[in-house]
Amino acid sequence: MSTPNTIVALLHGPDRAGLVAKTSGWIYENGGNILHADQHRDMAAEIFFQRIEWTAAPSGLAADASLFKRFAETLGMTVRVADAARRTKVAIFVSKFDHCFHDLILRWKSGDHACDIVAIVSNHRDLEAAAKGYGLPYHYIPVAAGTKAAAETKQLELLDQLGIELVIMARYMQVLSADFLAKCANRPVINIHHSFLPAFAGGRPYQQAHERGVKLIGATAHYATPVLDDGPIIQQDVVRVTHRHGVNDLVRKGRDLEKIVLAQAVRWHLEHRVLVYGNKTVVFD
Amino acid sequence: MSTPNTIVALLHGPDRAGLVAKTSGWIYENGGNILHADQHRDMAAEIFFQRIEWTAAPSGLAADASLFKRFAETLGMTVRVADAARRTKVAIFVSKFDHCFHDLILRWKSGDHACDIVAIVSNHRDLEAAAKGYGLPYHYIPVAAGTKAAAETKQLELLDQLGIELVIMARYMQVLSADFLAKCANRPVINIHHSFLPAFAGGRPYQQAHERGVKLIGATAHYATPVLDDGPIIQQDVVRVTHRHGVNDLVRKGRDLEKIVLAQAVRWHLEHRVLVYGNKTVVFD
Amino acid sequence: MSTPNTIVALLHGPDRAGLVAKTSGWIYENGGNILHADQHRDMAAEIFFQRIEWTAAPSGLAADASLFKRFAETLGMTVRVADAARRTKVAIFVSKFDHCFHDLILRWKSGDHACDIVAIVSNHRDLEAAAKGYGLPYHYIPVAAGTKAAAETKQLELLDQLGIELVIMARYMQVLSADFLAKCANRPVINIHHSFLPAFAGGRPYQQAHERGVKLIGATAHYATPVLDDGPIIQQDVVRVTHRHGVNDLVRKGRDLEKIVLAQAVRWHLEHRVLVYGNKTVVFD
Amino acid sequence: MSTPNTIVALLHGPDRAGLVAKTSGWIYENGGNILHADQHRDMAAEIFFQRIEWTAAPSGLAADASLFKRFAETLGMTVRVADAARRTKVAIFVSKFDHCFHDLILRWKSGDHACDIVAIVSNHRDLEAAAKGYGLPYHYIPVAAGTKAAAETKQLELLDQLGIELVIMARYMQVLSADFLAKCANRPVINIHHSFLPAFAGGRPYQQAHERGVKLIGATAHYATPVLDDGPIIQQDVVRVTHRHGVNDLVRKGRDLEKIVLAQAVRWHLEHRVLVYGNKTVVFD
Fold first, then answer.
1. How many angstroms separate the CA of residue B285 from the nearest CA in chain D?
2. Which intervals hold domain ACT (chains A, B, C, D) (predicted)?
């Protein structure tokens, strides 16, 4: 959890001497107190990564954030700066499966995920009553053969209108088009895939896993990109299965994995702990 | 560990009523005492699987084993029967990596693996001194471009001559030909692949894993078949990695995985716990 | 999941030759078809354990169950027999924490737990609205200094009246008295303790774990007995923590463990997979 | 692995603003390049912890290390500084069990543990031949009833004489006296205990675990202190067991845990990643 009046910056760029000293020096000189500072160097690529979190005077918080950004850019860094207390606006996309849906909402209600869930979007009506029971607006946007492009246009209008900053695909059973994702460039989309990627990408991964006879099944939370199931991986986990488990058992056991892996990825994203570069993530946990 | 004078039978065949009663009834009527009996049913395929272990009078052990086999075949079962105390003759194939090599030999010396290691076979001389230090015969059979077929012929002659019943590829860095494997039909070959198959089959799996940015790396022990890295999986495990781990760290962390996964698979095989059907295994652990 | 018209028997008693043959023979002769049969021998104690599941004609199911029980008792076995399709009547005890409460109810609603949840019992009003939202009767029985005995009497009357067969303490924050538990002799009570027992029994286990500086925290589901946190363990699991995690993080991370471990234990209990002997369990999973 | 010409500093002391800026600023001004810098704050205790690793000119390495130490002390920090390339002198204490012994030596030979193993010390002769096979000096110091104090005096003389900086108890089956440990104040002693501490401290932990019926067994690597099995925990891990596993199986399965947990703790210690405060560790991994 972030303390009030803290700023979080995520930066990366070409490595060079003195970067830690310079960013921490700037914060100290500007009256900030560093709470957390994590660095990483990709030795092969010679890239420097940093997540740094510091307290600032409440009055000067916005100004400090933008001054720091400008300063870090003079060091050649690509920078994202956030007021840690500001709550990200989230839309959850669902279809018929409800386990990730309930899980995300209950975690949010218990205070684990510091965000504002402002919309549930679905291509089915199945979870409408449950969403309303939680007091959440439900947007039913059906997708039929031939209407996908129109549906996506509607979805994008809604996301724009509500100022959505993060889309969570909580077992939403439609592939988002490259066009949709391109229009979400500044609005990350987190997906949960029910396999240990890159194994069993695409459809029916539990069926695929059962057929191959693997001894562990997995789940993968990743940022969605135009290439299906190929985006930067945020978190993965596995659970043991045996020959005694049929496909239905895999589905059941996988639900717990999906919930936990997706929730963990969402939490890290909301806390500004995930930095994407190339097709990988650096997770400062 | 098996108690002395015990017989182990592995059977599978079309499911039908009364199989458990009939096999256990036969053993009881013939004076045996069942120590372990595990069944599995593949409900979709309607196949029955059983591993059953019982004590017999020392004098009648061989006779009982062969009588039981004949009886179970009358039930439509495919049967393998073994004297549990008989030690399987094993050859270990190695190249230059020595971690699985030392691990298997030390487990064997400590009594974990009830087998006879009768040959170390290698395409390099690197581990010759170590093998001799353990008192084990070392067979250097180099493999060069164009000499592979000849080398495999030599290997097969050696395996035949020594009566080898199990080949363990302990990071042996040559792909065995389909021809070699066909000639090993009654002599299983266990391989350790350093990834969570089916992800990252083929060469340089740690490099592949690092490039994809996975958050867990794995190892897979499987029976070798003519299709590379595609045989029935016996055991798999994974370990967590982060962005901080370079390829070398993956290699280092993976070594522990490889050792444990391979040793577990070998142990199960030696204890007659693994039954292959189709491209999968039933492991009665 | 059990198929319709199946009987499950759990038996244990002094080991002797022919037990597998006799129980499976009886079932075969009586027209049953064995679906699953698992045995275990405690070699040191010379006790035989078995879980056996078979189909019977719908008409004869009750009769067969009671005949089998009588037969197995002639073999010296202690036997419990159940109609696999019969749903156990469950009461969930809660206080203020709601994570296990929601988790159990959502699993039940999704069909994972084949039981009837017929009462939520609580010493607080906090979860009343949520219970009613799920359509579940909520029994508020406050417990104050000096009123515990009276409250337990009320609870027992309620359990008797509703025919409750299993009590789940879903983070119910009162220690049940030895007297209460004695009166629940035929009505098991499953508790979730938020540590890896026997480490950190008693109060505030996360605080204790944090103070000791352990690198893994755990959760334990066990049958409640008069000795606090000492009953037969059904399931345990752990999750990694580091020096970066404060007590609040342990509490948060522990919630997922508690949910999964408790749900797993409840599932095994409902499927008649857990056999208690001495202070231990045999879990036929 | 540390790059050549790097310095590692571990510091901790009262938290205050500007510590990151000051230490990193000093290094930058003195021509160093920071490779890794990890910080931790114990918010409750208001203590700051840091591990910082930087390159220095080969010629000035020793001078820089000592200058930095003096500088950090002016900030109120307790500081340890090491030349990352300097190899720690290690003695391994063993009795009869050989699994951790072989494991540590093979890892060291493979380059995983950058130290000098200069002595094997044992109260038995069992591993003498194996040690000599590895080319390692073996010091047989028997311990009998009444001779323990004399034996410890001999051990301490040996450790002093050889300049030993780390003692590893690789299943050494004698409790070291408080007096011995006091005399090792500047020479840490790492012990592997074969349970998930604080559960099953003291003797025969696998027997204790079996009797309690736990579903996971563990191993714990910790610094030895005068209170038995109570020192700061460096690393722990667990593995699943079932009712099918007897005490001997627990012993066998535990061996892999013990090897891996001990090796990991030793590796972290050798890389100057472990900082002890109070009875806990901060592990900068």
1. 9
2. 8-89
